[in-house]
Amino acid sequence: MSTPLEHDYIGLTETSPMERSSEKISSSSSSSSTHSIEDKANKTTNNTTLNLKETELRLGLPGSQSPERKVSLFGKDLESNDKNSGFSVSPLKNLVSGAKRGFSDAIDASNGKWVFPMNGKSDVELAKGAGLASSRGCLESKNNSQQAKVSIPAMKEVGGLPQSPKPVQDKKNLVSPPNEHASAPAAKAQVVGWPPIRSFRKNTMASNLAKNSDDAAGCLYVKVSMDGAPYLRKVDLKTYKNYTELSSALEKMFSCFTIGQCSSHGLPVRDGLTESRLMDLLHGSEYVLTYEDKDGDWMLVGDVPWEMFTDSCRRLRIMKGSEAIGLAPRAMEKCKNQT
Amino acid sequence: MESSEVNMSRDSSELDESARGSSSPDLALERVLSLLKSHRDRSSVSLVCKDWYNAERWSRTHVFIGNCYSVSPEIVARRFPKIRSVTLKGKPRFSDFNLVPQNWGADIHPWLVVFAAKYPFLEELRLKRMTISDESLEFLAVSFPNFKALSLLSCDGFSTDGLAIIATHCKNLTELDIQENGIDDKGGSWLSCFPESFTSLEALNFANLTSDINFDALERLVGRCKSMRVLKVNRSISLEQLQRLLVNALQLAELGTGSFSQELTFRQYEELESTLSSSKNIHTLSGLWEAKGLHLPALYPVCTHLTFLSLSYAPLQSGELAKLLAHCPQLRRLWVLDTVEDEGLEAVGSSCPLLEELRVFPADPFDEDIIHGVTEAGFVAVSYGCPRLHYVLYFCRQMTNAAVATIVQNCPDFTHFRLCIMDPGQPDYLTNEPMDEAFGAVVKTCTKLQRLSVSGLLTDLTFEYIGRYAKNLETLSVAFAGSSDWGMQCVLTGCPKLRKLEIRDCPFGNAALLSGLDKYESMRSLWMSACHVTMDGCRQLAREMPRLNVEVMKEDGSDDSEADKVYVYRSIAGPRRDAPPFVLTL
């Protein structure tokens, strides 16, 4: 391990006693804005712990990142209860993933899982630092990410602070390029030798996974996220024959979820999305089912024939109805192009 | 075991074969002592007096060396003239997790050279985390005409060519056990090298090799080795082939199946089931690669007398496991993947009241998208149903202090408690507190605890508890834990029986390292990596304790003053003479 890593670790662990004192100092300020979020889950979040850990961690080269920026990322989030408000689609993606990251309690983020590209200004500086750090070798960046990751488990519910894992996620994005399929665990592993599993077992299980994911005819797993839900699910699109089946399956998974029009109709094949139907959708239900297609665009589910949908769908998102308003024009445009 | 190594230092100068008297009491004593198998007993015996020391060394046939660098082959050969069986362990355990660079050492060859001269009648060699080349395997095969048993676990440096040589030349081979090694698998032709006249094999384990082997050769081999009691095949063997093997080996006691997912015709299935019903001696079952629920019922007849079931490569779901376990009332040891989830573990609790050992491995340790696996609930469920549980290895993604307290209350007899919360530094997920109280409960309640692996967010309090209560603790593994030097100091000053301490990524520095000055000679080894120890601290340790080997492994690009990886162990062989450039002996 290199010096920066050890310094990082020193920083990280020495926050433990510091955390406690800082808790007392800043708990009053953070508690108000995070209270509602904390109330959601029965798990308490120690935001100040994260704050300090974030500032101690060096995700890029030592000294390349100012704590202020991180705090402001935090600050941004602390201000808003609803993490989704006021964001455009692409940071939204990051938030969605960040949200997922926040909940995830497995340590190793796979860059292969992050399918969307890096964009957004705030990423750039992090990227710079991260990129420089990563040039020193995988191990370090892994450990940096790992240390960054250590702060995350304290934050269990997603509604709260997706931004804190965001730097981690972004950095990890930079460390290795996103790819669609699960590659060998070596690519996913962020900390050498952790969890403590013998190489033989790791490799065996990896080849099992690779076998399963290469079995293209067999299954087509896509992630399903739902705004406000603490974790994602994965569904195998091949197990459904039409939108109705998908909808009811998702409904079961996320029990307070409805996709309004789609579930009741099983949308006809070539019809574009009419304005009236869209309004029905938006007014008729609290949530809307959207998906990200191969082009990286977020689309309303139900527009295209089922086969085309399963071919182009990369991930699903159950979006709050209020968010879907931005999608409709684009969706309609695409439909227009198709008809 | 350990004290025998220390004994060698005291008496190495007194080793004189002519000192062995011809007086009958010595011979009688030797005869009596030859019945002693336990190493610790033998060590105790050797300390009584010089006569007993000599009698012990002349009557000993098996030597266990827990750290190959703690002693030299010459010293061993000088003290024990009549060894027929050797067990050697080499690299530090963390080498299993890629924390030790390649070519670190632990080469068996120098040992084989001495053994060839001093123990020409050597019969057994069991190696763990050693490096063994094909040349060494060849040397072994030709140097020891009476060679019987070779067991390689977590070793590296060899290929299937070496196995071919063993198969060809070892006419008296009874055991070939190749497990979880870094082996270069070039193909399965090695198995065909056993001559047609060869019939002595009793134990054959090649489950972890991947290449296809010649099934006909295997079938013939199994057919003619009538004393075979252990057969663990690899994935290339299908269910149908398994049945054909079993039909000629109904005396088998331990079976490792191959792939368990072949499509069988109804008749084939019936045949398999019938053959398994006739295999009344099987008490250990493993393999079951890609086992599908469909074929598991064929195993039911075997399950009734099963005491050890390893499903650690079979990703079963909870329902499949439950159905299977319902037929395994005698189970003592169970290894599963966390695909069985908490529900599966509930079935363990309800079906296996005699369970003593449980290991739950993660099927997908690096995937964070699919949230599954086991939680504290599964562990608790097992503890309610299996009061005799004393060995657990548990990989999970969440745990609570309260759950662990309940678990040890239900199962106070833990001797091995290895809990791995896979996210480093993760607190109790319900209270967000450190997991200190969990491990506190373990050490307070489980007075027989010998081995402990801790994880999760831990402060020095955990180590205070360990030092204060874990009086029988011999092995402690720590990662991403602790707050200060004080933690490690508590352990070093508090645990009288501590033998192995391995630490990674903890904030323990020189003060902690040096607080164990008086301790390390009574321990086998200490490993510290990614901690705060510096080169100066290590040098000081080396200066003050000349009978310890203090080795530092430096990494590229690290600061000169940092001691990245430190490995400290007692030795009567002096510093290593075969250390690679990246290992600095201070």
Summing up helix and strand content along with how strands pair, one would put the structural category of chain A as alpha+beta
For the CA atoms, what is the radius of gyration of chain B? 25 Å
Alpha-beta classification of chain B? alpha/beta
- Between the first and last Cα atoms of chain A, what is the distance in angstroms? 59 Å
The CATH topology assignment of the domain at 221-257 and 273-320 in chain A is Ubiquitin-like (UB roll)
Strand fraction of chain A equals 5-15%
Secondary-structure element string of chain A: HHHHHHHHHEEHHHEEHEHH
Q: Strand sequence of the main sheet of chain A, in spatial order?
A: 2-1-5-3-4
Secondary structure: helix percent of chain B: 25-40%
Bulk shape of chain B: globular
At the fourth CATH level, what is the homologous superfamily of the domain at 221-257 and 273-320 in chain A? Phosphatidylinositol 3-kinase Catalytic Subunit, Chain A, domain 1
Distance between the termini of chain B: 27 Å
Major β-sheet profile of chain A: 5 strands, mixed
Main sheet properties of chain B: 21 strands, mixed
| Mean pLDDT metric of chain B | 92
Give the oligomer, counting copies of the same chain as homo and different chains as hetero.
Answer: heterodimer
SS summary, helix count of chain A: 15
Query: Are there runs of chain A of 5+ residues with pLDDT below 50, and where?
Result: 1-54, 56-189, 257-283, 328-336
Subunit structure (chain A): Homodimers and heterodimers.
GO cellular component, one term (chain A): nucleus
GO biological process, one term (chain A): auxin-activated signaling pathway
Keywords (chain A): Auxin signaling pathway, Nucleus, Repressor, Transcription, Transcription regulation
